[in-house]
Amino acid sequence: MMAVYAHAINFVVLCGFTLLYGVVMDHTSKNLNHTCSENPSDHSANCSYRGLTSVPRNLSHDVRSLNVSDNNIFMLLDKSFVNYTQLETLDASYNSMYLIENETFHALLLLKVLMLDHNNISVLPISLLEKNCHLYLLSLYHNKLKRIPLIFGNNLQTTYSAKNGEDACGCKNLSRFYLAFNEVRLLEKGDFVALRNCSFDRFDLNHNDIKSLPRAVFTDLPAVHLLINYISLVQFQADSFLGNKAIIQVTITASGIRSIVPMNTSEIPRDLFPGITKLYLSRNELITIPKYALDGFEKLQVLDIGRNLLSSLYNGSFCGLKSLINLNLSVNKITSLPRGSFACAEKLESINLSLNDIAVLDPQWFDGSHSLSTLRLYESNIHDIKNIPWNTTNLQTLILAFNNLNSVNNNTFVGLKNLKCLDLTRNHNLVDISVDAFEETSSLEKIIMTDLVKFTMTGSFSNMHQLVFLDMSYLSSRLEINSRGQFSHTSALRTLNLSSTYIKAEDLVQFKSNGSLFSGLVSLHTLKLQKNLFYDFHHVPNAFTPLWNLHELDLTDCRIPQIDSGIFRNLTSLTDLLLAKNLIKIIPAKAFQDLQNLRNLNLTSNYITVIEKQLFSRTSSLQYLYLQNNQISTIDSFTLLPTSLKVLIIANNPFTCTCQLAWFREWLDKVNTTIDKRSEIRCSSTSFKSLRNQTIWSFHPKDYCGVNIYLIVGVSLAIVTVLSLSILTYQKRWWLNHKLFLLKLAIIGYQEITENQVPEDYEYQLNLMFREDDEWWINDCMKPFLQGRMPHLEHIVFGDSGLHPGSFYLNAIYDVIENSYKTVLLLSNQSVEDTWFMTKLRMAVEHMNDTKLEKVILIFLEDIDDDNLPYLVRLLLSRNKPYLLWVFDDEDGQELFWAKFEKNMRANREMNNVIPV
């Protein structure tokens, strides 16, 4: 009641002073010539920085957003906004305002945002905003309010108005209420009674001069997040929040709190206990936490007491916190803790003790913390861990980075059988890690050991079957590897980081056994080797052979001078290859031939001068190619560049803009690829004179590279001569082929490697497979030939009629193929479109591959277009396998056909899979 009377007295005084002023201002405001800018499209008006002393009256009546900030307005009257009933946003901040009349905003029934910050308001009328039902943001930053304003009416008045049917809805939609940077010194329980019907997401009392928080002072405050930072609170009274279930999060940081005063929960009904789940008390001056300090905060899950002056705790400090999950005690002065310090908080999962002064870590501090899964001890000056078994059996993450540990042995982590993540980063004194250091933590999935002084691999990881991530990067001295087999059973490892460990290429492969350091890493997905010393990289072609599942290989800045053509041959899953900042000059044409899944290739900042024409012929998935900062002067015609490219960077190369580069310049215009850093792609001093030091886009080949008449005439004559000879040769082709065939037999004879078996050793000497439509050729051509010239062939299968009856069709086909000395398939345009015929062809080829004998002969009955020729047939032809072409109405051609057929029937040659050049 005292607060209400104080507000009333101040308001009466100000109203009396304003009566005369209101009459004068009402007259002058009507004649005010405002210079506001209005935007009809969004119904807004901007009147800021206009030197106004009152709100303009002659703006559009449908204005929805009005900005009168940064003016000289020092009063808002009842009539200031009566013409703007559609107003939703009002910004009156940064004025000199000290008085606002009672009904100033009553006409603004649609008002949502009201900003009155940075004024001189010391008191506000009761019920000032009781009719503004849609208001959701109210800002009163930087004013001179000394109490919580009753601007929504006191609770009795609001209730009375509702009973009488008046339009008094209070602050039911108000979400954010900002009272920071005022002069509030005292909070009393009745200050929030009028706010019972509100539902604040955020209630901000930061930067006031509040010195105490009385018992149950926030009972009526319906705020989710309460901020009271930067106040002058000496004690934190735990009972200040009694009776409040609405406040979920409380932040009281940098407020000078020196002690916590527990509440006597034995005398308080449980239904009055606070509902707070997150409490932040960081950057205060707490020295200790008393026993049962926050008893009664049964729903508290997060407690932050970091950045205080804590030097000691009790083993009952956190008793009563039945729901506590996350505890932050970082940046304090803790040197030691009592045994079982956190046992009372039975659900505690995470403790942060980083940046304290713990010299010797004692595992007994955490006895009884059966739910503890994460323990952070980052930069806490730890130099030793007592060899006492850990009883925190559920601990999964242990952060010991940036300490001064001297050693890690078999006893260091005894009891941590469920530990999954261990971080030992930058323990500069840690030079002694025993071979059995991780035997007690066989469940480890992630080990981080970056930035150590020295480390020797002694097989510590070879039996870690669950290890997924291992980082040993940035050692101060060379990584010592005392033997191979370091990862022989580390089959789950997916990421290995050995960057900047000063290893050499010779460390990757054992030359005597030719075994790789990475043997056993069958699941490795990412391998980082950047900033090492691989001067002899081309001498270790088997380094990555075991890594068939590798997706990312980082070899950035490794001093690599050249690449062996087979170094990446087994990395068929590789998607990212990073070779930037090396010494590479030439890359062999076959270096990337097996990288069919490669999407990202980074060759930035090397000394590459030439792009081999076939370098990218087998990288059909390449999307990102980085070639900037090299020595490429030209790219030869017909160089195969991937059509899948999305991004290409070729900046800062000394391109010679002459006719030799013309095709590539035209390709850049046609390709559907993003060319980044276009302005840095320039012509070198060896270019055409007018193009020197110009961007390559200034080079238009049509303007510089005209038609060469001598070349055209010469080429034309050559084409005519070749055509004439070709026509003559074609007309006599069969005669020439026959004579050449006979000449070859006469000169070099006929020798070939054959199998030991002869046609008589097979059940069938000849198997003819054809489509029914092509049976006429068998009857008219093949059968007369066999009867006349090869009568010794008695067991012959003619098509499907010769298959074993009663068997499944495919089984019968396979049985005939397997037991035939030769299988002949007749190809025509119709047969290659017949699914069953192509199935027979595939089965015959598979059998040929299994036996390694050329037992299949293809006979073309007619010409088949390349577009219609199946891939399997083209593959056989490319490997120079036996095939014959039947010619009609040409006796010489037919004679040569039958001569070749007889030759192919004499023996089964061993397969020669070398593709002819």
Secondary-structure topology with pairs:
Elements: H1 2-30, E1 37-39, E2 44-46, E3 65-67, E4 75-76, E5 89-91, E6 99-100, E7 113-115, E8 137-139, H2 155-163, E9 176-178, E10 200-204, E11 223-227, E12 235-237, E13 249-251, E14 259-261, E15 278-280, E16 288-289, E17 302-304, E18 312-313, E19 326-328, E20 350-352, E21 360-361, E22 374-376, E23 384-385, E24 397-399, E25 407-408, E26 421-423, E27 432-433, E28 446-448, E29 456-457, E30 469-471, E31 480-481, E32 495-497, E33 509-510, E34 515-516, E35 526-528, E36 552-554, E37 576-578, E38 600-602, E39 624-626, E40 647-649, H3 662-670, E41 674-675, H4 701-704, H5 709-731, H6 733-748, E42 766-769, H7 775-789, E43 796-798, H8 809-818, E44 823-827, H9 835-851, E45 856-860, H10 871-878, E46 883-885, H11 891-906
Parallel strand pairs: 2-3, 3-5, 4-6, 5-7, 7-8, 8-9, 9-10, 10-11, 11-13, 12-14, 13-15, 15-17, 16-18, 17-19, 19-20, 20-22, 21-23, 22-24, 24-26, 25-27, 26-28, 28-30, 29-31, 30-32, 32-35, 35-36, 36-37, 37-38, 38-39, 39-40, 40-41, 42-43, 42-44, 44-45, 45-46
Antiparallel strand pairs: 1-2, 33-34
Helix pairs in contact: 6-11, 8-9
